[in-house]
């Protein structure tokens, strides 16, 4: 049985003290929480072996150039995580990070998906998100950027996501720094809107016979 949300602890995980078991637990939790993600499933063509490398990439990016927060039960089970890139950094912005985080994902993908990820999705993603924020006179690198937010299915719609975002929400409010995120789900758009975010743009990535939607959102 899922622990009541009031019993969960939200805490930051640091690169200097994270254990290998915690790394695995966070990746496993994200893999489970994103099992139905249209964006992820479309990019990796439902390739099971590529799920963990994708989420490991996000975790490594957060530990290196951001902040990672987890929701834990009293027994220490990790049931949710929010991973941010801090202002002044960007996603996978160093060669070292690309080597240890991005390369394993690319190697896990089928050749056609690897080519799509590197030649189409990533360049278009960077271009479009930058355009959305340049229209309001701010760069993405100047904001808190939510890379990923995942909660186990049995803990969803119970306020865990909001609790995971709260530490950075408070930091941003104290400093006047904006927050941004992207999502592929209209349901998530509604959830983030209730948390005070607003849609700044909507884009679709073509991939074969399908299109992958993305909403760009801003939090003030």
From TrEMBL:
<dbReference type="GO" id="GO:0016747">
    <property type="term" value="F:acyltransferase activity, transferring groups other than amino-acyl groups"/>
</dbReference>
<dbReference type="Pfam" id="PF13673">
    <property type="entry name" value="Acetyltransf_10"/>
</dbReference>
<protein>
    <recommendedName>
        <fullName>N-acetyltransferase domain-containing protein</fullName>
    </recommendedName>
</protein>
<dbReference type="InterPro" id="IPR016181">
    <property type="entry name" value="Acyl_CoA_acyltransferase"/>
</dbReference>
<dbReference type="InterPro" id="IPR000182">
    <property type="entry name" value="GNAT_dom"/>
</dbReference>
<dbReference type="InterPro" id="IPR052523">
    <property type="entry name" value="Trichothecene_AcTrans"/>
</dbReference>
<feature type="domain" description="N-acetyltransferase">
    <location>
        <begin position="81"/>
        <end position="219"/>
    </location>
</feature>
